Structure prediction request, 277 residues.
Amino acid sequence: MTVYNEIKVTFPSKSCNEAMARMIAAAAAAQLDPSAAELIDIKTAVSEAVTNCIVHAYRDRIGKIEMTCRILEDNVLYIKIKDKGCGIADVKQAMEPLFTTAPQEERAGLGFAVMESFMDSVRVTSSVGRGTTVTMTKKITERALYLTRASANAEAPDLNTAGVTADGEADDEKYT
Amino acid sequence: MGISVKEDEGRVTALLSGEIDHHNAPLLRAEIDNALERLRPEELVLDFGEVSFMDSSGIGLVIGRCKLMKDIGGRVMINNTSTSIKKVMKLAGLDMLTTIC
Prediction:
């Protein structure tokens, strides 16, 4: 899977950073010239994933959230949001609509349902006590031959040698 | 994010603006609930005309206000929703709980 561009940011699990994460993801997606509706879909999904880290993963403390945005071939945006929080014991149950462990906070329990509805694919891996990783992709409707076909092609080999697997997952050690 | 609350003969209208997420939903909730507890209106109008972004935290905000209005014998109207906000609301089934315009 060719990676044309990538940005990785790490930020503390403070709620004021939800908007910042949305804006960074939107800036990364902008390279694919998304429509306004596609951009809002991406921002909404990122907001849900980051909020989950803040509300659930790091419920009683501030921890680090790592967000990676990649531009893949075929106009696909890849977003990975990773925490090292409490983890999820039953991912299948957590992904059911209306399931929440924080009803007292007026949480709707729709975070994963929104992500699945607004993105093309959502994958969740988690380990209790070690953290959770949410990986999402969305194919952006091609409206202009922009980054993926022209200027970015020359830069692609650098990232391709960094251990990117077929589903866009990269070898983290080569980026740290 | 901002809110302006108007009162008019049994109706409270909350004019919401900006982005609604988990960070700022509690501030909106406090402002609205303060007016509801003080005035106990028959109708709460949540106006999303100036809201540029909303995630599921906004759904929690609306559902919570619907419960509160039900407790005091009133109803909730949701006005001026954009296509994207309507999409989140319909995903949550809010269109079955209240009127969305």
